[in-house]
Amino acid sequence: MIIVWVNKRNWKHPGPIVNMSVHNAHSFASIGLESHLCLGESAPSDTAVDLQTFYGLAPLPNFKVHRIAKKRRLFGGDSGSVYRAARKLICELAKKDDVAVFTRECGFLVPLALMCRKPRIRGFYELHDLFADLSWRQYKPRGKELREKWLERLFLPRISGLICITREMEKRYKQIFPQMPSIAQPLGTKSLPATDPEKKRLARTLVYVGHMHGPKGISFLQTAAFKLAMHGVRTEFWGGYEKDALKMQAAAAEKGLSEWIHALPFQPPAVMHEALAERASLGVVMLADTYYNRYLTCPVKALDYLTHGIPALGTDIESVREVLDTAGIYIPENDVESFTNEVLRLLDDSQAYADATLRTQKRAVQITWEERAKALVSFSRSLF
């Protein structure tokens, strides 16, 4: 079986979306399958070098990245260039073997449904939201959301299966499409060598990875960071856009805490992972308790912390528990005092920190990208 993963965004696009697609597609190659990734071209560069220096992944002979030049048509955007090239590649590959096609792009559902009519092609949609039923939204949906609702309603029943990133998401889609084959699998962790937990504890550095906006618990963490600085704990924010990082830096400077609080906009994943490996003591997954955060998201930041054996403090909601499981240290939402007390307890007690690290390392090996790929391959093969 051959794997094709389709993403409309450009190679080296900042943020988690393309990074997750690269890791998804690469994971199939890492377990021995021929795997192809189709996405936008971006500026000219050496793809193999980018894979190592930007994404932190080793080039593999059975992993092929197709960087497709985008051309805007009179009607519609430029993502159609990626979809047309991907469809052509998939049909060619299907002449020699079964092809399992994966995407998270709603715009690719129409060609995917058409290709699923062919006996050697099966198509799978990786869900990252709940568009098919918008009744949970606290505002009146419009525009893109309504378009995606009807694309899901009309074309999900015409593809082969659904890939849900949380168990709660799968429950909701089963209610809408009870006959659709589905599987719930969180995104994955990397397999990295263990680091010295005592060295990381002594670094006394709290790290947050991801977008810097309200639902991610940023205001809460900023308040906690000010308190923790008084106890010799540094806080680093990795992610968001330039304006978000500048705003955070200005707030720290205003309180005279620039030495203790640092903020960087989105960096290449390899650079971020290097920082986590070198000095991160604890990670933060204090998501706001919204419907989306509780049921529909798989917090990538939690996976990053697990990868490096970094104990993580998170909100006690289903999505965070599904990833961290018994490795998580759960704090009530907006309880700054409990959060800061728990951070200090772990950083001031070497045995407590070592125990938390061991639980984290055990959880990390249970949900690697390779384990996810094996589960998706088994699911896909069952539908050919």
Written overview of the protein:
The protein starts with a strand and ends with a helix. It is globular and about 65 Å long. The protein is of the alpha/beta class. The protein has helices at 16-30, 47-53, 79-93, 109-115, 144-155, 167-176, 197-202, 218-229, 242-254, 269-279, 291-296, 300-307, 318-324, 336-348, 350-364, 369-381, and strands at 2-10, 34-40, 63-68, 99-103, 121-127, 161-164, 182-184, 205-209, 234-238, 261-264, 282-285, 312-315, 329-331. The strands form 2 sheets. The chain has a 7-stranded parallel β-sheet, sandwiched between helices. Strands 10-9-8-11-12-13 form a 6-stranded parallel β-sheet, with helices on both faces. Strand 5, helix 5 (144-155) and strand 6 (161-164) form a beta-alpha-beta unit. The relative contact order is 0.12. The chain folds into 2 domains: 2-188 and 368-381, Glycogen Phosphorylase B (Rossmann fold, 3-Layer(aba) Sandwich), CATH 3.40.50; 197-364, 3-Layer(aba) Sandwich (Rossmann fold), CATH 3.40.50.2000. Helix 12 packs across helix 15 and helix 14 crosses helix 15.
